[in-house]
Design brief:
By secondary structure, the chain is of the alpha+beta class. The protein contains 8 helices and 19 strands. It has 3 domains: 79 residues, FAD/NAD(P)-binding domain; 110 residues, FAD/NAD(P)-binding domain, CATH 3.50.50; 105 residues, Enolase-like, domain 1, CATH 3.30.390. 22% of the residues lie in helices and 27% in strands. A hairpin with a 5-residue loop joins β15 and β16.
Amino acid sequence: EKAGVTYYSGHASLKDPHTIQIDNTVVTADKILIATGGTPRKDMIPGAEHTLTSDEIFHLKQQPEHILIIGGGYVAVEFAHIFHGMGSKVSLCYRGDLFLRGFDDDIRETLKEEMIKQGIDLHFNCDLAGVEKDQDTLLARMSSGKTVECDTILSAIGRVPNTQGLNLDEVGVDLCPNGQIKIGDNFQTSVPNIYALGDVANKVPLTPVATAEGQSLAYHLFADKQSADISYENIATAVFSQPPIATVGYSEHEAEGLGHEITVFKTRFRSMKYILAERDEKILMKLVVCKKTDKVLGVHMIGLDAPEIMQGFAVALNAGATKADFDRTIGIHPTSAEEFVTMK
């Protein structure tokens, strides 16, 4: 309001490329931006009404004694640690061989080992087939044939774009097969004056990315910036598991898939803090380096303070840092981060 924005509360749909219907109000605009985000997806299985999503899980009236989490992405893994930290028994079920697909394999394996040590019950290569309720107990029928008895089930199997009811097809806005809005240069949709960004569009579904996209589009539309496009390379990301994960750039598998001949530098250790506390939690750090150019292609870490540490290395990768640049940088001692500049 201080910026002079007129706010309308209601459900919006497009009547034509320049007209929006908001309940009983009609608004016209020269340019329209769709930034409606996404919503949790639920499988249509028998008993799905007995499962919760990340939207409802914060409104539980009491702490679960035993929670079953379905999924293998950020939300599933992070909630597994949240509830485990609160003292609930936690089981996690994922349909693939290993959770956090897309992250470096060494990082994923290390997290798996740490979760097993913590007592989190992991089930891979299976899925939730159905749910039955017996008084206060939920009987989760798994695709493996096993039944898990619990009192809460969290479905964290992904998100879908919020495009329902927007009337996009009627005005000619093209969608991807998964329902995301297809965008081109400067976040334009197939209708030139309609733009889309964030989780509803077919780019990178991360909050900081959406923020950067919004700022860039605003400069393009209202401050004469020629291009609104941003770089989607070397976007750092973190999983707030226990221990946490942070990464930027290519994984070892991705780099090889792109044809790079690589050298991998890797170290695994316990931090001084955990040694003194006699805590058996490991840190893994990894660099993926191009043999031909010496350019650092990826930086990966699982361990204490990984997200805080990774932000600075994201700057280095976007500046084109080489392994030689890392090597001539003096480390801060005693820290875990210094390992990144001392690996040989």
